[in-house]
Write a structure and sequence with these properties.
- There is one protein chain.
- By secondary structure, this protein is α+β, with helices and mostly antiparallel strands.
- The chain has one helix spanning 3-50; strands at 54-60, 64-70, 76-83, 89-95, 102-109, 112-119, 128-133, 136-141, 153-159, 166-171, 177-182.
- The strands form three sheets. Strands 1-2-3-4 form a four-stranded antiparallel beta sheet, covered by helices on one side. A four-stranded antiparallel beta sheet has the order 8-7-10-11, with no helix packed on it. Strands 5-6-9 form a three-stranded antiparallel beta sheet, with no helix packed on it.
- A hairpin with a 5-residue loop joins β3 and β4.
- It is elongated.
- The termini are far apart.
Amino acid sequence: MSKRIILLTIVSGLIIVAIAVVVGLYTYTNIQAGDSYENAEKEMNRYMTTNNWYTFEIHNMEQSVLSFYTNEDRSVIGLAEIDVETGNLGSVTKQTEPNQPFDFVILRVEDMEYIGVHLKERPEDVVYLRLNGDDVSKDFLVNDPEIESYTMTYVIETSRPSDGSWSLETLDTNKQVIHSSKLTE
């Protein structure tokens, strides 16, 4: 055999081994990440059960598990987040206001802000939520008018707004304001 064929065989073998190692590491990392989310979800369920909370929504975020929840008589709403890597839990609760068309609770985590909204009055008419403040306005589709069912809860994920005057509005199909409320914690 020539030296060229031997060298080509060795290089080909090394490339195959390198590809196998990369695929193995990628698979192992994904399995570990899946276990992290599974563990965080189990911890979130334990937290909800221990504190007699009832989950409205639960979401797997980029690096965490987020839950929007209430108590049995819906007099309190809250948001909780568990970091999938560290297992650290952060939560916030807020008393609901009986005469308001919607309630909200705000959870700030590093540079992110989560706003959990519970629609109480005419949720079937609410198509959008609008977050207004500091020359910024963003609409979030809550209830698609093409779908007959509707939701009563929604979680807004946004970068942490700057200090200032912020409001949250419910909008109908034509983006007309139904209700509005100042965002205060």
